[in-house]
User: Fold these one by one.
Assistant:
Number 1:
Amino acid sequence: MIPPMQLHSWIHHDNQADTKARSSRKSQVFRHVAAHRKLERQQRTWKLRASALDLYQTLQTPQERHVKAVEKHFTAVLDPLDTLSLPATDEIQSLIHFDQEYIIPALSGCLVCRVFPSAYLQDDVARYGYLARIAAIKARCSDPGLYNQALSLKAEAMRRLRERLPQLEESNRLPRAVLSLMFAESSCLNFEAADIHVQLLSAVNESYGLDLDDLISVLHQDVQRAAMTLTRTRFSMHDRSWASLEGELFHSRAPRKSLDSYQESSLEWIMIELRGALTALDILQRAESPQSSREAATFKCLHVMASLIDHYHDTTDQVEKYTALAAVYRIRRAAGMERVIICESTVFDSGRVIIPQLRELLAATYGDLPALRLWALYIGAKAGDDWFDQELGNHSKQMGFYDPEMLQGFLTGFERSGLGRWNWETV
């Protein structure tokens, strides 16, 4: 169970409560949640959200200067032609135009990203978090002065969430409102606050379930944040849930340390998961793939990346570490998640942390499996790092690959076919 103070501190998370009051509230919420689990689903849902409202009102006070700042952006009359019922101010129209002109086209190349702008903009709570996301991205890419507007919009989203929570209960709109704030915090590079949103959504999903589109959105954001900061993922689901979502693409076996030929070693597990993710991406790239298969493939890809990032932190074996990192980077590039360009600025660049760490691990593990090392060097070279280019050239010659086509053919087979450990050691 995630501590309630963590779940709800994202509403003006910079405020400080005294220790005794915090402890008392924590105990009260734990008892409250424990009691609700004995009730029927509908009753639990209503009371959880009612208790959340009480916490928002008790623990937090409005940031008046932010609320006042945002009001000036939302005072214009509505444009009768505006089907989204948004105030037709120049600031808001400019943000929506930037989203349609730059952000949406840039993210359209990502095979596992799913965001529907109209669903957020038509929601009178979620729209402010979504607009804050646009403002933050625009501030990073073209106009740094918009960062204050992003903060103001985010503050308005928090205020409205506190005020509208009872109404959100009936329409199941709470997850989307929290998602919009998660997007906003992530776009502001405030990953600590974004983590709190993710953990809250994880708890809601565990108890009540999330809409599939919302679930994909939070998983995608969690994996993006984990890869860009090289930290663990925060969203958790039981294997039974993953199996239900992934269908026949689900691979349930956990990594093992044994190198016995009849058991799956950790390295083999990593490569099997990589192949599963690449197979899932093949499904997503085929226009004729049915919707059910596309959804299963999306969950498979996101699950593999999350598992590999977490395995990188769990294992102490350097070869496993660099193999997991290389696999994550390989999947990210294939999925269109890496080095997304918006207005000539690069966003979602995990390579700036993954590639230096991959280089450090490879430099410390000479004498490892030749074919595995060759593949990892090739993945690193895709990032344009000179060290990888030089090492790849030297290592490929040592293995007898002098022809680029021959090298490419071997690497493709290494990724895609079920090569055993003995195949990894020799060509």
Number 2:
Amino acid sequence: MMKVAKRVLPGVAAATALSALMVTALVAPSSLGAQESSLGDVTFTRDIAPILQRSCQTCHRDGGVAPMTLVNYQQVRRYSSRIVYRTGLRYVAGAMPPWYVEKDIGIQHFKNDPSLSDWEVAAIAAWVENGMPEGDPADMPPPRVFPNNETWIAGQPDLIVKTNEILVEGGAPDWWGEIEPVSVGLDEDRWVSSVEIREVNDVDNRSGNAADRQTVGQRYVFHHMIWG
């Protein structure tokens, strides 16, 4: 089953497993966290860390849905070549961060837009090319503080909708299929301001310790969703 929550909107929940995902459209373009220094002078603490905090760490952190953590210098250095490759893909499948809104048409200002500017993509590549200098520790921004996995990231939802139960066999390959539509129970048109998808499963976790889950993001099955 899957749970989707919405603000003046609907929500979803998946029974065998589901992870949290929030998409919010409306106002406030994201601001650059890093000063646009010369590409020959890019450091981790001053330039790269703010980019990762804004655009990557929602997923790439302890308890996040991504398979690796990108919070400190050593973690990022380890995956540096992969980061350069993925961010360099830009708007094709597999690009990171995943944000496929066309940049030359339609609405461009989205709240929580994680996409990178051309300068940020170039800065990441230049940083790796120049030997990945760590920089001055005093330039490191304060760490982001994330809510626990039991908290609604988008705030208390106006509507919660559950999908029908979804069974995924153990050891089976990833399933890329369509989830059966369910009624949201509304009798009038409403604007959707945000959607959050939460994992709901039948795994006994009475210990209450999410760290006991030996899976990506301490979740079991669900990891990505495209919705519309």
